[in-house]
Amino acid sequence: MPGAQGSAAVLGRVILDDGEVGHHDASREGEDYLVGLTYGYEGRKWYRWASIRHRFNRDAANGFERPDKTKVDLVGGIRFTPTEYREPDWVWMLELNYERFERTNEVVDGTSRELGGDQLFLSPGLMWTYRNFAAKAGVQAGIYEDFPTGQEADDYRALIELEWHL
Asked: What does the buried/exposed string (b/e) look like for 122-150 if buried means 16 or more CB atoms within 10 Å of the residue's CB?
């Protein structure tokens, strides 16, 4: 399209070691898997992206259940002032992020408690690009959660990301 680019992708990933404390290869039985779909549109003024991903987590070797996780992201962005390729560029974004943790029961010291649930975030962000470099910053603010009693939800999260496209 003149002045715009559309894209779509199918994602697949095998996770041998997720790097979480206590969940390295020796404490897990097998690999985790991630599958997903993405869509994107980047125009001179408007941006939009959507993705859905599901992570299939294996249980730990000690029997601890590691729940599966689903994430859905919807993103809209605007470039208020279109620039030329060799000029720095700003895109303002607003995201809606949904996370679902499969419900499971955890037994600690003979006491069972339910874990898992749903959380929804509203996430303003900013992306600055200069040719093949990009910096992204954003904050996820929790606007809805449905977790069992006693399970705390994240109030907010912050992210700064640097990219270099070769």
From this structure: ebebebebeeeebebebebeeeebebeee
* Model pLDDT for residues 117-137, shown as the tens digit of each residue: 899 999 999 999 998 899 999
Looking at residue 83, its amino acid is T
The span from the CA of 73 to the CA of 40, in Å, is 11
CATH topology of domain 4-164: Porin (2.40.160)
Q: Which residue, among 70, 62, 68, 148, has the nearest Cα to 112 in the 3D structure?
A: 148
Show me where the domains of the chain are located: 4-164
Which residues share a beta bridge with 107?
A: 112
pTM of the model: 0.79
Encode pLDDT of 25-52 as tens digits.
445 556 889 999 999 999 989 999 999 9
